[in-house]
Write a structure and sequence with these properties.
By secondary structure, this protein is mainly α. It has 15 helices and 2 strands.
Length: 388
């Protein structure tokens, strides 16, 4: 009898341990799946974005204007994205977000005002939803894993974010290498291989969307539950107005706004103007992929160095100021080079100069992105509403 009772007492523990191990495996698996899905989607989108100003030029800068509409739409819909995510759940929001990227890619197969403009507006909405959904899902997964494994929550969140952003950082490099391999410069400025390229990118996005479907739902203890309809609309409106208006009366936020503006402008420059007026005349449209692959590689290296090496030096406002100034100075060198000295040349130097500019600009972009986020974390460490 004693041995039988002993087995009965031990068996629940065995089941509990196996279930806990299975949960931990599911959490890490979901991070792997999410990271791979985003890589497949954004290697296609990032490379296509770089080509908009050079490929879709037949109807009065259709590509450039489409990007402008896209990011204006993204800015507006970002105010309401968290409400959509809480209503749908983070997994469903992620899947919804992928549809915007797929539609935008499909529109590039038949670019016109009637296809690109609606696709850009919808992508702005989808992008706002997918990024809020990503942050919510990744944080919820980390919390569940920390709870099941009895680990420190902050450590797990850092590890999961490190894996996700480490893989995501390679999307520019991988996507632009595909562009370099498939695009060909034709006669009289024409470009061959664009249809094949966009079809390959559509397949990549489709695979990324399918991977999203294999994620586990995260609407339990790691993620906030759905909103109550009656109270949610009012409470969300109050919270939204507070989060938008309150920072405008904070001197610290007002002083940071120029950094946000410059960060956006320098990315718009490299995606549109640099590829159109510097890379294309020197290397052709097919060379855009190679130059932006260099940009993506050095951007990823700079982000890694800032996270690992410079992170030890980022002890306060003064250190961040010096690091950000270094990144901005690198880009100022490129701008002065273009304005005062640069001319399209033939030979090896004609190929080397745009690639060198892309590398320097990528270093500056990587520094700005990481250190601006670190600056916000330091200035608003005791004010999560504003810091978010």
């Amino acid at each position: 009898m004693d041995s039988g009772d002993s087995r009965d007492e031990e068996s629940p523990l065995v089941v509990s341990d196996s279930q806990s191990d299975k949960n931990r495996q599911n959490h890490t698996r979901d991070v792997h799946v999410l990271s791979c899905a985003f890589l497949l989607i954004f290697l296609a989108y990032g490379a296509t974005q770089n080509l908009e100003s050079t490929v879709n030029t037949g109807e009065k800068d259709l590509g450039t204007i489409s990007l402008g509409i896209l990011y204006l739409s993204f800015t507006i819909f970002s105010l309401f994205a968290s409400l959509v995510v809480r209503m749908m759940g983070s997994k469903n929001a992620l899947i919804l977000g992928t549809t915007g990227y797929w539609l935008f890619m499909a529109a590039n197969l038949k670019p016109s005002w009637f296809t690109m403009v609606p696709a850009s507006v919808y992508l702005g909405f989808a992008a706002s939803v997918i990024w809020v959904g990503e942050g919510t899902y990744l944080t919820a997964t980390a919390r569940c894993h920390a709870n099941d494994s009895n680990l420190h929550e902050g450590t797990v969140i850092g590890n999961f974010n490190g894996e996700f952003w480490g893989m995501f950082a390679s999307h520019q490099f991988v996507g632009n290498l595909i562009t370099l391999a498939l695009l060909q410069d034709g006669k009289e400025g024409s470009t061959g291989g664009t249809t094949l390229l966009f079809i390959v990118f559509l397949c990549s996005m489709t695979l990324g969307t399918i991977l999203m479907c294999f994620l586990h739902q995260r609407d339990g203890k790691g993620e906030e539950g759905p909103l109550e309809p009656a109270v949610s609309a009012y409470s969300y409106a109050v919270s939204l107005s507070k989060s938008v208006i309150t920072p405008l009366f904070d001197v610290r936020m007002l002083l940071i706004i120029p950094l946000f503006v410059y960060s956006g402008l320098q990315q718009a420059f490299v995606w549109a103007e640099f590829t159109k007026y510097i890379v294309t005349p020197a290397l052709g449209v097919s060379g855009v992929g190679g130059s932006m692959a260099v940009f993506g590689a050095f951007d990823a290296v700079a982000k890694f160095m800032c996270s690992v090496v410079a992170g030890r030096l980022t002890s306060g406002l003064l250190s961040i100021t010096w690091i950000v100034s270094g990144g901005a100075f690198a880009q100022v060198i490129v701008m002065l080079w273009i304005l005062l000295k640069y001319r399209v040349t033939s030979g090896v130097l004609g190929i080397l100069y745009p690639l060198l500019m892309a590398a320097i600009w990528g270093i500056g972009d990587g520094i700005l992105n990481t250190q601006i986020n670190a600056l916000i974390g330091i200035l608003f460490k005791n004010d999560t509403d504003v810091g978010a």
